[in-house]
Please model this.
Amino acid sequence: MVSLNRTQGRKASLTIPTEVILFFLFLLLSLLSSCSPSPDWVQFRGKFGQGATSRAINPPLGIKWKLRLQLDGLTLHAFNPPVVKGDTIYFGSADGNFYALDIESGYMRWVFKSGASINSVPFADEERVYFGSQDGKAYALDRKEGVEVWSFDTGRPVNSTLQRYRDMVLFTSDGGASFFVDLEGKLVDKIPNPVWYFHTYQMVDDVMFFAPGPLSQPHSFGPYDTRTKKYLWIIDTNEFNAIWYSFPAVTKDLVFFSTCGYAEYGWILGFHTYDRSTGKRLWSYEDISRWGPTYRPDLEGLFLRNLNLLDYMAPSVWKDLVIYTGGDAVVRAFDARRGTLVWEKEFKSPVSSAPLVAGDRLYFGLLGDPKSPDPKERSPSLVCLSARDGRFLWRMELEGALLSAPVAAGKWLMFGTDKSLFYILEEVF
Model:
């Protein structure tokens, strides 16, 4: 925002009919199929916002399909991650449309037109899908038919994550409030939000990580207990030299987030870990943006571009590492508890998206450098590294820069680019 027993018996002489064997074989295969990992990815950054899944996407990968959403040739400033429920992908677009696509074919199941561009991240449950629009409304649609069930008018753009938690739906309007509505779209509660735009959060054990701070400290944020309606602790932004504060990832006892400030000589990147219970800062690591040997960045233009991405600088937590892409040309992996730099990988053009870990592999986008003397460095691409040590594994050229972290669902990897293309990659074998 910006300011997941055996027993033995006698051998029997019994002949089992072939039809019975085939029946039980079919039943066994059905059971095995039903026990396979669900392809669902129903909320932002996955479980606990950790930007990771244990389900590996095994190479080689091929393009299952890709779909161009707009034909006007404009470069998009945001294409936030989709959610996946069952066999359907759901996401909003800058054209104001909210799409439901068949994951196998790309067939458009339905389209819902909102009143303005959509730059929120949706949430899906069994019956409905929820999203916000810059027309000031949060919407609940029937997931199968795409018809409006209800809408809630906040009076200001809703450029936030949305989440259903228990019997409430949560969302935030820019410079307005964080709203808690019931499943019929009726207001239950709200937290004033006079400062924050592009607000991202998650709910863990009835606590909102992070809520806009109290009115007495408007330039602050913190974990907010929705039962007691009290903050557990507060982070005052005066502690940081930053404009951007990322979406937090949460573990049993830690909270991770990052910050970015702007200066004429470069970006001031900060990576932070707090004790989840006490709010004590355990470690911070600060660095100045680095851009590779030949890339000449438009510092202000790139910085403003990133502020539209709700997952900008969001961490991926994998085993004992926390991994960040800061929007410069470097990927950094830290020991999650100590804050020591375990590995880093520098590229020849900026990283264009937040990371995702699937299995033990790290995926993200590179912006590309059209002026590079090396033809391989000119085009935007999807990159895969080893999450363990940062070792380069492969890259795939794309039509347009990947804007937000890929989403992994089942055997598929999916993402959108700034050329208004939506990609589905699939395991070949």
In short: The longest strand covers residues 254-263. DSSP finds two helices and 35 strands in the chain. The two ends are 40 Å apart (CA to CA).
